[in-house]
Amino acid sequence: MITAAQEKHISIAALKAGDTEAFKQLVEEYKDAVVNICYGYVQQREDAEDLAQDVFVEVFRSMDKFREDSSIYTWVYRIATSKCLDALRSRKRVKRQAFFKARQSSGEEAPELDRIRGGFADPEQDLVQKQQQEYIADALDKLPEAQRIAFTLSNYQGMNNKDIAEIMERSAGSVESLIHRAKQNLRKHLYEFYKSQFG
Amino acid sequence: MDHEKNIEQQTTEAFNRLTNPERLKASDNFFEKVQAKLEDTPKQATIYSFTWRDTMKYAALLAIMVLNGILLFEVTSSDSMATELGEEDVSTLVDEFFPDYYTVNEE
Description:
Chain A is built from 11 helices and no strands.
């Protein structure tokens, strides 16, 4: 997590002036965090990296709109969340089953499974893992937007409730409740998926 | 019972994987890719940078407004002409069917 001390090293005036070095510093400080947030939404490594790049393009383009009433950290994360939700909405137009089937039939493995594949030489185990990944993505998609945002920031970025509350403009108590309900719903959805599979 | 146990087990495994995700790292040339995208992405439109599509769009809108204006003018002009004709017709009818009309009114 970015500390206030680290943030002080980033010159807002230089960023607003379009200074490349200042922007590079911002990108280097936040890139891992933004990639992980994006991964929490899109569940694909390559897509997460691509989306994270789009986030920073948006950050650069709208730097003059930054009002300094919040920290840069909060502002970048808000843009990241907004971009991710936009990406999910446009992705929902493409059927998820077709997406996964296309990748499987082309022989292309889902990148995030590369780290798992090394331990499993068994094709059946691969299939189980792929299915698990699909169910996880579907369960996340079923969450209401507010729950998803809170859960993603907490789970994929390790943020505390206070920081999430600042980003979402809610109370810390509300965030805690959202995360709790998100976990309950995720577990319920996963159970339903597996129940429908095993009958 | 085994079925249910199996479902619970699978659910727990998936949930644990979900709540303990891998922490990713951005690629080494991440900033260069961002810069490349900044150069590729078209800048926001200003009043001086209309694209051809925007120009055609506004030209079509202007043409419609002009046509509407012409149509309105034509309709209102023909209405006033019709009124004049109407008055003549009324006078003819009055002379024909009520010859004593003006004599009565003069009294």
